[in-house]
Design brief:
The structure holds two protein chains of two kinds. Chain A is of the alpha+beta class. Helix content of chain A is 44%, strand content 19%. Chain A has a domain of 36 residues. In chain A, β1 and β2 form a beta hairpin. The chains are: A alpha+beta, B mainly alpha.
Chain lengths: 57, 221
């Protein structure tokens, strides 16, 4: 039973992660969005948005 | 930089960070006039650009710049206001550079011209303005015009840091144009002329790479 609950919880977490694919939160790294529109939609009072344009090439 | 504790705290509270791989997403790169990496653009909540920062910087300097920009310090608008006072060529140069990085070529050209007109046309700041001008065309991928502008800098500013930078850019453009033989000759000249330069190691790497590549078939461009 406990195992089933844990598996369900893991599945829910995975679904939540997939639903917020534009917002990446990783340990040891500044949280970031991958979409400017998503960040602008989430911006709070007195907050601003910084867009880091980078290239791996 | 974004793994630093200060940056993590900053982007968890004060500002939201967006990371865009503009090397892959070239449309968005064009939309925001991004001509080099990294480019960090600060936007207000409506998506209006407040200002941008080019290149890498230590975390403290980066965060301070963003905080300053957010309070209107050091932004293009701020500099333009300050330029209404006494003649300040260094300030004019800073404004020109800001316009250049935003893709405002006409405005950048006008401010570079003001730097030159307000002082000695052959001093170091004029030389840096001429470099900026030539680099402006390079960023716009107008390579023929850029190459001619860098060559004019080389003619007018022989020796010194301006000359060194112009040589590097000239070699870079020749390489982009497929003129590898000429690029190689410029780089070899650079290493010979400026053996103490901090760019020598990079130049030597490029020489080695060019020599390892197949023969140049681009002809004279």
């Amino acid at each position: 039973m406990i195992r089933k609950v844990l598996l369900t919880a893991a599945a829910i977490v995975a679904l939540m992660s997939a639903a917020s694919a534009d917002h990446v939160v990783k340990d040891g790294f500044a949280p970031y969005y991958t979409s400017i529109d998503e960040a602008l939609a989430a911006v709070g009072d007195n907050q601003m948005v910084v867009v880091d344009f980078y290239s791996n090439t | 930089m974004f793994v630093d504790d200060k940056a993590i705290e900053f982007f968890s509270s004060r500002m939201l960070l967006v990371k865009i791989n503009a090397g892959e997403d070239t449309l968005i790169k064009k939309e925001y006039n991004v001509s080099g990496f990294p480019t960090n653009i600060l936007m207000d909540a409506r998506g209006n650009e407040i200002d941008r920062m080019m290149g890498f910087a230590p975390t403290d300097e980066y965060l301070k710049t963003m905080i300053d920009y957010a309070s209107g310090v050091g932004t293009l608008d701020d500099l333009l206001n300050r330029a209404k006072g006494d003649v300040d060529r260094a300030l004019y140069f800073e404004i020109a550079e800001k316009y250049k990085y935003r893709g405002g070529l006409e405005e950048a050209g006008q401010w570079y011209e003001k730097v030159i007109e307000a002082g000695d046309a052959l001093d170091s700041l004029s030389g840096r303005s001429r470099l900026g001008w030539a680099d402006m065309y390079r960023r716009a991928k107008d390579y023929d015009r850029s190459l001619a502008a860098f060559q004019a800098v080389l003619d007018d500013f022989p020796n010194g840091s301006v000359d060194q930078e112009a040589m590097i850019y000239k070699a870079y453009i020749l390489k982009v144009q497929g003129n590898n033989d000429k690029a190689l000759a410029v780089l070899e000249d650079f290493v010979k002329t400026y053996p103490e330069s901090e760019d020598v190691e990079w130049a030597q790497e490029q020489i080695d790479k060019l020599k390892a590549e197949p023969a140049d078939d681009a002809g004279d461009k």
